[in-house]
Amino acid sequence: xxxxxxxxxxxxxxxxxxxxxxxxxxxxxxxxxxxxxxxxxxxxxxxxxxxxxxxxxxxxxxxxxxxxxxxxxxxxxxxxxxxxxxxxxxxxxxxxxxxxxxxxxxxxxxxxxxxxxxxxxxxxxxxxxxxxxxxxxxxxxxxxxxxxx
Length: 149
Known about the structure:
Layout: E1 3-9, H1 15-22, E2 28-31, H2 37-48, H3 54-75, E3 78-82, H4 90-101, E4 105-109, H5 119-124, E5 127-129, H6 132-144
C-alpha cells in the first residue's frame, strides 16, 4: 500500500524537506504547492498579464495556484497542513477546510502557541503533530504498522 501525501502550509522553513528525507524508503509520493514565494505570488500576472491593482494581481495568482492545490488535495490520501510561527497562514487553514470537506485524512503540524487559534482545525484532523519527525512516524506507522524505535 502506498500513500499520496500533500504537504500544505507555510513555505518559510524546511519542514517539507525534513518529512521527505525522513520518509525515505517508504512508499510515499509527496506533492505540494509551489514553494518559490515570488513565483507563487506572481504566477497569475506572469502568465495572464499585468494588473495595476494589487488586489487583482493577487487574485490572479491565487486562482492559478488553486488549480494545483485543488488537484493535489483531491488526489491525496493524507494532507499534512503546517502552520508556522512567522506568518499567519490563511491559505493553510483554507486547505485544511477543503481537505476536511473532501473527507481526507489530515495531519496538522504546529507548535503549542497555535493550539487555541487552531482548535477547530485540530478538531478536524486525525492527528496533531508538533514536529516534522512525528509526521514521518505517523506515515511510517500507517504504512508498516511499526512503532518508532
